[in-house]
């Protein structure tokens, strides 16, 4: 870049010098003395440096170079005062980090599309006592009562979130999961990617234990093993 | 009386492009030719001439290269490109439209 800039400048200087010389020659041809010719020519030409600068400004590469020069200058200044630079970087990092975290949360909860149809029809019902703050989970017998007797909603499903111990691997692990009623997925209208979801009656006591894995868990904990799914389905 | 070329930038471009339709020329030659053909009315100073030439070159309407000139000095010659010729036609018709419109206003209104 530097070499081409020097070439351009050299050429620019030569172009202007050539113009001046021709003007001088013309003046001499018109009969002026050489000194006078040169003086007149210089006056006629006017402000050379600003004209040259304006020529340089016409090319995009000039702007790119000056921007890079400014950046380089800025970086050199920053290097000279490391304390200030560190503080500035730390503040920027904190600000950007906090902003990203908040936006990710807002994005996931408010803006992201819900992956099932008619999200506006889904409500969460919880139990609460007037005297106590907060909500508590609905117990299974209560849930069964509500399901049987209510008429407001198309369907009710029970959802109890729970952390679960996973054994049978090299190390026991703790997973985040939920215990749900058998119609849970039917209520949301989701379809399984592999295998099947719950069948009616599988939530009654005495039925076999069945689990539905999230895609993420299947990939990270169980190695995306398709055989595993079919294995369980067979049981 | 010579006109100080505070001509609009576009008009100077038009004059330069037209001048180059004959043959390639260097900056000084272009200015001289414009002055001669306009009978000394249009005198283009190098302060506006060379920025215009560089700008036209940047847009690809003219090309430049260094050649030996008639007095054996090396000079930077400019010549019209095909795009430059097309642009010249467009600018001439625009110019005629403008002049016609101004004429109408002067005569009519």
Commentary on this structure:
- The complex is a heterodimer of chains A (235) and B (109).
- Chain A is mainly α.
- Chain A is 56% helix and 7% strand.
- Chain A has a two-stranded antiparallel ribbon with strand order 1-2.
- The longest helix of chain A has 30 residues, at 82-111.
- Mean pLDDT of chain A is 83; it is low at 230-235.
- Chain B has a single domain, classed as Winged helix-like DNA-binding domain superfamily/Winged helix DNA-binding domain (Arc Repressor Mutant, subunit A).
- Chain B has helices spanning 9-19, 27-37, 46-58, 82-108; strands at 3-4, 25-26, 42-43, 62-68, 74-80.
- In chain B, helix 1 (9-19) packs across helix 3 (46-58).
Write the layout of secondary structure elements.
The complex is a heterodimer of chains A (235) and B (109).
Chain A: H1 2-29, H2 34-45, H3 48-57, H4 60-80, H5 82-111, H6 140-149, E1 159-166, E2 173-180, H7 184-188, H8 215-220, H9 226-234
Antiparallel strand pairs in A: 1-2
Helix pairs in contact in A: 1-2, 1-3
Chain B: E1 3-4, H1 9-19, E2 25-26, H2 27-37, E3 42-43, H3 46-58, E4 62-68, E5 74-80, H4 82-108
Parallel strand pairs in B: 1-3
Antiparallel strand pairs in B: 2-5, 4-5
Helix pairs in contact in B: 1-3, 1-4
Q: What is the averaged pLDDT score of chain B?
A: 88
The strands making up the biggest β-sheet of chain A line up spatially as: 1-2
The structural domain count of chain B equals 1
Number of helices, where a helix is a run of at least 4 consecutive DSSP H or I residues of chain B: 4
What does the radius of gyration of chain B come to? 15 Å
Number of domains of chain A: 3
Q: What do the pLDDT scores of chain A average to?
A: 83
Task: List the uncertain runs of chain A.
Answer: 230-235
CATH homologous superfamily heading of chain B: Winged helix-like DNA-binding domain superfamily/Winged helix DNA-binding domain
**Helix count of chain A?**
9
